[in-house]
């Protein structure tokens, strides 16, 4: 079971539902280690738990197959290899990004990403810049930037503040 969970549990991106289907095929159909009802129960519970559904499913399936030991082995098999790889890649990136040429390339990529974001923001703002709504748009944009950059406010808090300000701003004054 650990080999199946290790192979498929560490090769998923996103939510993992497709990976769960593939793991289920191996556990139920190919090896007959798990009953279909037990798999469906593990899946249902995994959807209710916070965190990664794939890991929750693997732990639940491991529990149904071998109890606590199965749950621990399933968790380790489905998470430790990818965690080790992420740690190694993070370390490699930290060492690699200290090189002057790499640091320059990363600054260039950051500048390009910022330019793309500014361009996208301008594309969204342009229709409101044609009439008296421009003042409202500029005030909200400057306030959002100031809160995020200078005030170190989280994006969620910026969006909430913009929503409140937008709701309180009288429409007659902006139209």
Q: State which percent range the strand residues make up.
A: under 5%
Q: Helix coverage percent of residues?
A: over 70%
The major pleated sheet works out as: none
Give the low-confidence spans.
Answer: none
Roughly how many Å apart are the termini?
A: 64 Å
Helical region count?
A: 8
Based on the structure, what is the oligomeric state of the protein chains? Answer: single chain
- What is Rg? 25 Å
Category by helix and strand content: mainly alpha
Order of helices and strands: HHHHHHHH
Task: Name the overall outline.
Answer: elongated
Mean pLDDT: 86
What is the tally of beta strands?
0
How many domains comprise the coordinates? 2
Compact summary:
The protein is 81% helix and 0% strand.
Keywords, separated by commas or semicolons:
175 residues, mainly alpha, 2 domains, 81% helix
Describe it for me?
The protein has 175 residues and is an all-alpha fold. It has two domains: 2-96, no CATH class; 100-174, no CATH class. The chain has helices at residues 2-9, 17-30, 36-48, 53-96, 100-125, 133-150, 155-168, 171-174. The protein is elongated. The termini are far apart. 17% of the residues are buried. The mean pLDDT is 86.
Helices and strands, with pairings:
Layout: H1 2-9, H2 17-30, H3 36-48, H4 53-96, H5 100-125, H6 133-150, H7 155-168, H8 171-174
Helix pairs in contact: 1-2, 1-4, 3-4, 6-7
């Amino acid at each position: 079971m650990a080999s199946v969970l290790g192979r498929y549990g560490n090769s998923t991106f996103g939510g993992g539902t497709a990976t769960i289907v593939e793991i289920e095929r191996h556990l139920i159909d190919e090896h007959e280690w798990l009953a279909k009802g037990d798999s469906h129960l593990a899946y249902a519970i995994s959807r209710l738990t916070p965190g990664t559904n794939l890991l929750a499913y693997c732990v639940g399936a491991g529990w149904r197959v071998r109890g606590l030991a199965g749950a621990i082995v399933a968790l380790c098999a489905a998470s430790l290899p990818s965690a080790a790889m992420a740690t190694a890649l993070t370390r490699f990136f930290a060492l690699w990004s200290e090189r002057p040429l790499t640091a320059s390339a990363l600054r260039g990529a950051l500048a390009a990403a910022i330019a793309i974001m500014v361009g996208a923001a301008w594309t969204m703002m342009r229709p409101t810049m044609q009439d008296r709504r421009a003042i409202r748009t500029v005030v909200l944009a400057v306030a959002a930037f100031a809160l995020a950059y200078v005030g170190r406010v989280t994006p969620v808090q910026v969006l909430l503040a913009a929503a409140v300000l937008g709701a309180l701003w009288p429409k007659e004054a902006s139209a």
